[in-house]
Amino acid sequence: MDRFLSSSLTRMFVFSMAVFAGSLFLGLRMYESTGGTGEAGNMIEQLAQLMAPIGLLSPPLVMAVIFLNNSIKALVVIILGYSLGLVPFFFLVVNGLIIGLVVASFSGIVGSWTVVLALLPHGIIELPALLLAAALGFRVGAAVLNRILGREGRPGRELKHGLAVYAKVIVPALFIASAIETFVTPLIMGR
Predict the structure, then answer these.
(1) Which of 139, 126, 132 is nearest to 165 (CA)?
(2) Residue 177: how many CA atoms within 13 Å on its side-chain side?
(3) Which residues are CB-contacts of 77 (< 8 A; sequence separation ≥ 6)?
């Protein structure tokens, strides 16, 4: 467990938070600056079309889709840390932008406070789990870079560690978050 709390993982986690927060802010600003029109509006519309079929599923199937989607993404982000951390970085930027756009869009419809209340119950579990996956991917990427530069780097060991954390921490957290998102969030949003 000492390895789980290592200073390099902490630094990578803080870096993940910073990238995500910056992208989230950028998504909010993008929506506000366009008034929900143009590219920002198109992205929201495409996302709504993509998500529409999920709304037709029974709650247990919705939960399964959310859980599998997040679990697969977290696993891919860890494994593809081999990309020198580019995939985890791209994952954080894209998700931050999308969430920023969605939050800004829904805030205009139901109010900011309702959006915060809807996201908070599952977000306080889901977001740290996904940030942890990105941090683990960055550690794999750093080990690959160290090896390329001729320094000590053990990407295989980092990946093995990342997969252990994934199984023990991330998967259970994402399961709990998906249950909350499926059964609690709709109540808060009034549906």
Answers:
(1) 132
(2) 24
(3) 87, 88, 91, 130, 133, 134, 136, 137
Half-sphere exposure of 103 (CA within 13 A, CB side): 22
Structure tokens at 98: 């999308």
Q: What separation in angstroms does the CA of 76 have from each of 43, 109, 166?
A: 23, 34, 11
**Any idea what the Cα angle at residue 77 is, between residues 75 and 82, rounded to 5°?**
110
Please name the residue ranges forming H helices in 111-154.
Answer: 112-148
The candidate with the shortest Cα–Cα distance to 103, out of 47, 19, 52, is 47
What is the per-residue pLDDT for 5? 52
What are the tokens at 92?
A: 């954080």
Would you state the pLDDT for residue 40? 67
Structure tokens at 131: 């940030």
Q: What angle do CA 133, 16, 106 make, to 5 degrees?
A: 95
Structure-block tokens of residue 157: 């060991």
What tokens appear for 52 in the block? 């529409």
Q: Which residues of the chain have pLDDT under 70?
A: 1-5, 36, 38, 40-41, 191
